[in-house]
Amino acid sequence: MKKMQTKYLFLLVLAWLCIPLQVTDATASRMSKQDVYQLLKSGDSEVVQSLALGEREIFLATMAMNQGSTAQALAFLNTEAVKKNQLAALIKAEAYRRQSVEAADRAGHYAHAVNDDIGALKRARITDGLDKANTRLNAFVERVSSAKPSALQAVVHKPAVVKEVAIAPVKVASLVQPRAAVTPQPTETHVSAEPKASQNTKVEPAPAVVVESKESSPADVYQSVRAAIEIWREDWESRDSKAYLRHYHKSFKTLKHDYNSWVAYKRRVNGSKSFIKVTLSDIKIIPSADKGQDGEAVLVVFNQRYQSNDFNAESHKQLYMARKNSSEPWLILYEGDGA
Fold it and tell me: Which of 38, 96, 213, 314 is the most exposed, fewest CB within 10 Å of its CB?
């Protein structure tokens, strides 16, 4: 009896000692964000290659945004894989907004449109896309943590096996044909009328054509954006859908619309109004710190009062606009309500 009690006591102590070990192993199995980042960046593992097109770039950009590196995030978001991805477009807009805030802080009182108050710009967060991306990223981290080790290793592509093909012997004599004798023909010698340049003759290089690069000044950017917004407002009031929609970039996106669905939506809404009145106030224009693939970029925030025959509203609005260069028009890439 005593031996049985001792045996059960031993088993109970052993089970108690194993519990912490199991908890520790389960905790350790969850990969760190840095490990996941390296796994995504290499892109060689089976679990990464099974992701949908563009999802790897969105995850990498999200992690960079969480670390405060907007430049690195934009590098991932300016790739071909996410060119038509709406979620990537929203994260990209937020990255440019953050860069614009940093640029405004550095510019101080030289930022013409800030008017010593960039609080509205700092509150105008475009976080819907980033929140959604973080939810997906956390789910991916859990998936990676529970994946088999083989799924995390680099995928090795084996070379294709080439079957040996028997080649019938060919008689060399059948391949060699006698060549006809070639009678040499007299050649004509053409003497150029122009004298040849001697080795000592100095040849002057053609003058280089210098193309002067013209950078837009902050004042030029501010004035051109103000003019573009005013024309956009007037075209909106005119209810001329063709004129109004020409202000939008073909890559325009929101969380609900792409360019095509936005065109259909605005034509339907604007066409149903007997009049539209739009008033803008407290306009702030903040240029982006860096040029992206869309060229120059600005974030514009303002208060908007909208009036029509059947709807009135006041809101805080934000537009993300871009142009290839100073000779191109400003086009709207993103439009939404500010915080």
Answer: 213
Enumerate the H helices of 172-258 as residue ranges.
172-175, 218-238, 241-245
Tens of pLDDT along 141-180?
A: 888 888 777 667 765 554 544 444 454 554 444 444 444 5
Handedness of CA 147, 33, 75, 129 (dihedral sign): positive
Structure tokens at 330: 């400003």
Q: Which regions of 7-138 does DSSP assign to beta strands (E)? A: none
Distance CA 233, CA 238 (A): 9
Q: 279: which 2 tokens?
A: 């008033």
Burial profile 312-324: b = 16 or more Cβ within 10 angstroms, e = fewer: eeeebbbbbbbbe
- Rounded CA gap, 154 and 142, in Å? 19
CA dist 328 and 2 (Å) reads 94
Q: Can you name the residues that pair with 286 across neighbouring β-strands?
A: 299
Q: In degrees to the nearest 10, what's the CA dihedral of 292, 294, 295, 301? A: -90
Q: What count of residues does the chain have?
A: 339
Long-range contacts of 220-228 (CB under 8 A, 24+ apart): 220/326, 221/285, 221/287, 221/296, 221/298, 222/112, 222/113, 222/285, 224/326, 224/330, 225/285, 225/298, 225/300, 225/321, 225/330, 226/283, 226/285, 228/321, 228/329, 228/330
pTM of the model: 0.47
- Identity of the residue numbered 330: W
Quick one: how far is CA 7 from the chain centroid?
65
Bridge partners of 307, per DSSP, are 277, 312
CA angle 260–263–264, rounded 5-degree value: 90
